[in-house]
Amino acid sequence: MTEQLARYHTPMEDSTRWDGFEFRPGDIVIGSPSKSGTTWTQMICALLIFQTPDLPAPLTTLSPWIDMRVRPKEEVWESLAAQRHRRFIKTHTPFDGLPIDPRATYITVGRDPRDVAISLRSHGKNLKRDVIGELIRGAQPGDREDDAPADGVDERDQLDERDYVLRWIDNDDPPSENLDSLRGLVWQQGRAWELRAEPNVVLLHYAELSDDLAGQMRWLAGHLGIDVPEDRWPALVEAATFDRMKQRADDLAPDENLDYIRDKERFFRSGTSGEWRKVLTDADQAHYDERMTELAEPGLAAWLHHGSRG
Q1: Cα–Cα distance between 109 and 27 in angstroms, integer?
Q2: Distance (Å, rounded) from C-alpha 132 to C-alpha 135?
Q3: Contact (CB, 8 A) for 94 and 175
Q4: What is the CA radius of gyration of the chain?
Q5: Computed from CA positions of residues 100, 227, 54, 233, in that sequence, does the dihedral angle turn out positive or negative?
Q6: DSSP character at residue 59
Q7: Residue boundaries of the structural domains of the chain
Q8: Per-residue pLDDT tens over the stretch 138-174
C-alpha cells in the first residue's frame, strides 16, 4: 500500500506536482526552506557532477524546481526527462510531502532560523510579485489565483526588519499553506530531522558550509559516490564560494529564466550569519527562545542553530 503524502499548497509551491514523478537511480533531491542554502547546495552538486566551474547551462535549467507554480508541470517534467547527466532537483516541499525513493538521495540544509527571516525579508522585497502572479495564473488553468497581489504589492514588504522578523516568529499559519514562517521552517526541517539516520538522507548546515566549504564538499562527494580528481578540487571549491557565486548571479539566481527577480545579484545578499543580533532586542530574543521551545524538540533546535548531523 502506498503511503499517503502530506500536501502543501503555498503561494509559490504545490507539492502535488511531484505526483507520479519517475525517479532514476542516482537522482538527487535538494530540499530546504527558502533562504537556507538551497541554491548554494544546487551549485555544489552541479560542480561535483560536471567537475568544472564552467557549467553547460544556467543552474535553474540544470536543476529545475518541480513544485514552483510558475511553469506548467509538464514542461518541467519534460526537461528533466531529457537530461542525460545525473539529475539534481530543487524543492521547497517538506520531505513528508515528497515520494521518498530508495534510488535517490535527499539533501537538506539547516540554517539559524533568525538569519533565514532576515534573508527572507530582503528576498521578498526583491521579487516582482505581480509577474509571479501572472505566471502562476498562466501556468495551469484553474490553479488557485488568490496568492499574489495583482498590483505587485505585499504589505509584508513594507515592514521594517524587526517587525517583519517578529511577525515571522509569531505567524501561526498551518505549514500546509505557508512554509515561510518560523512554524513552517521548524515543521519542514523536522521532517528531514526525523529521517537523518536513513542512508539516503543528508543533512548539511549553512554555518558548516561557511566554515569549511572544502571539507563539506569532499564529504558530500563521498556520500554521493562521486570521485573528483585531486587537481580539480581548488577550482571547484573556489566556484562554490559565496563571492564567486554572487559574481555569476545572472547564471545562478533562481528565477527560472522568467524575470521575476528584480536584482539577481541581490539574491546573493550577504552570505553571513548572525545579522539578527542587530535587529532583535533581548526581550525579542527571549520571546524567540520560548517560541522555539514550543515548536522544536531540543535536538532539532540545536542542529538548526549550531549544525552537526546528530
Answers
A1: 17
A2: 5
A3: yes
A4: 19
A5: positive
A6: H
A7: 15-306
A8: 666 555 544 554 455 566 777 788 999 999 999 999 9
Q: What angle do CA 289, 290, 292 make, to 5 degrees?
A: 65
Determine the residue type at 188. Q
Q: How many Cβ atoms are within 10 Å of 233's Cβ, its own excluded?
A: 16
Distance between CA 50 and CA 180 in Å, rounded?
32
Write the class of the CATH domain 15-306: alpha beta
92 catalytic? Reply is yes
Our CA angle for 158, 252, 279, nearest 5°, is: 35
Length of the chain counted residue by residue: 310
- C-alpha grid cell, residue 79: 526537461
Q: Residue 96 carries which side chain, given as an amino acid letter?
A: D
Beta-bridge partner residues of 105: 28
* List 9, 85, 92, 223, catalytic entry: 92
pLDDT of residue 310: 47
* pLDDT band, residue 60 (cuts 50/70/90): very high
- The DSSP annotation for 79-138 comes to HHHH--SPPEEEE-S-GGGS---TTSEEEEEE--HHHHHHHHHHHHHTB-HHHHHHHHHH
